[in-house]
Design goal:
Layout lengths: L14 H14 L3 H40 L3 H11 L1
Length: about 90
Protein backbone atom coordinates (compact mmCIF):
# COMPACT_ATOMS: atom_id res chain seq x y z
CA UNK A 1 0.00 0.00 0.00
CA UNK A 2 1.29 3.52 -0.82
CA UNK A 3 2.52 5.82 1.93
CA UNK A 4 -0.17 7.85 3.62
CA UNK A 5 0.05 11.61 3.79
CA UNK A 6 1.68 12.63 7.10
CA UNK A 7 -0.97 13.99 9.43
CA UNK A 8 -3.85 12.85 7.20
CA UNK A 9 -6.68 10.68 8.43
CA UNK A 10 -6.05 6.95 8.17
CA UNK A 11 -6.62 5.60 4.68
CA UNK A 12 -6.19 8.91 2.83
CA UNK A 13 -3.61 9.31 0.09
CA UNK A 14 -2.09 12.40 -1.45
CA UNK A 15 0.20 13.49 -4.23
CA UNK A 16 1.62 10.94 -6.64
CA UNK A 17 0.36 8.04 -4.53
CA UNK A 18 -3.21 9.28 -4.91
CA UNK A 19 -2.81 9.68 -8.68
CA UNK A 20 -1.47 6.13 -9.03
CA UNK A 21 -4.23 4.69 -6.85
CA UNK A 22 -6.88 6.48 -8.92
CA UNK A 23 -5.27 5.30 -12.16
CA UNK A 24 -5.43 1.73 -10.85
CA UNK A 25 -9.14 2.16 -10.10
CA UNK A 26 -9.79 3.59 -13.56
CA UNK A 27 -7.93 0.67 -15.15
CA UNK A 28 -10.04 -1.78 -13.12
CA UNK A 29 -13.25 -0.02 -14.23
CA UNK A 30 -15.12 2.72 -12.42
CA UNK A 31 -18.64 2.32 -11.13
CA UNK A 32 -21.21 4.80 -12.41
CA UNK A 33 -21.42 6.87 -9.22
CA UNK A 34 -17.65 7.30 -8.87
CA UNK A 35 -17.26 8.01 -12.58
CA UNK A 36 -20.01 10.64 -12.42
CA UNK A 37 -18.49 12.22 -9.30
CA UNK A 38 -15.09 12.49 -10.95
CA UNK A 39 -16.45 13.65 -14.29
CA UNK A 40 -18.97 16.22 -13.09
CA UNK A 41 -17.39 17.46 -9.85
CA UNK A 42 -13.98 16.39 -8.53
CA UNK A 43 -11.86 16.88 -11.64
CA UNK A 44 -13.55 20.20 -12.45
CA UNK A 45 -12.90 21.48 -8.93
CA UNK A 46 -9.26 20.42 -9.17
CA UNK A 47 -8.83 22.25 -12.47
CA UNK A 48 -10.41 25.41 -11.04
CA UNK A 49 -8.13 25.34 -8.01
CA UNK A 50 -5.04 24.95 -10.18
CA UNK A 51 -6.16 27.82 -12.42
CA UNK A 52 -6.82 30.00 -9.36
CA UNK A 53 -3.38 29.20 -7.96
CA UNK A 54 -1.72 30.08 -11.27
CA UNK A 55 -3.56 33.41 -11.43
CA UNK A 56 -2.66 34.21 -7.81
CA UNK A 57 1.00 33.44 -8.48
CA UNK A 58 1.02 35.76 -11.52
CA UNK A 59 -0.61 38.55 -9.50
CA UNK A 60 1.86 38.12 -6.65
CA UNK A 61 4.79 38.36 -9.06
CA UNK A 62 3.39 41.54 -10.60
CA UNK A 63 2.85 43.18 -7.20
CA UNK A 64 6.36 42.16 -6.13
CA UNK A 65 7.78 43.58 -9.34
CA UNK A 66 5.92 46.83 -8.81
CA UNK A 67 7.23 47.08 -5.24
CA UNK A 68 10.78 46.48 -6.48
CA UNK A 69 10.41 49.22 -9.10
CA UNK A 70 9.01 51.69 -6.60
CA UNK A 71 11.71 51.01 -4.00
CA UNK A 72 14.36 51.46 -6.71
CA UNK A 73 12.60 54.58 -8.03
CA UNK A 74 12.32 52.87 -11.44
CA UNK A 75 9.42 54.77 -12.95
CA UNK A 76 9.54 53.07 -16.36
CA UNK A 77 9.68 49.65 -14.71
CA UNK A 78 6.57 50.48 -12.69
CA UNK A 79 4.83 51.68 -15.86
CA UNK A 80 5.69 48.40 -17.65
CA UNK A 81 4.34 46.39 -14.72
CA UNK A 82 1.11 48.39 -14.80
CA UNK A 83 0.84 47.77 -18.56
CA UNK A 84 1.22 44.02 -18.02
CA UNK A 85 -1.59 44.10 -15.48
CA UNK A 86 -3.89 45.38 -18.23
Amino acid sequence: MPDLVPGAAAGHLGGAEAVHALADRVAAGLGGDLRDHLMYFAIRVGVRRLADAAAAERQARMVGSLQYDIVGNERRGAERTAELAG
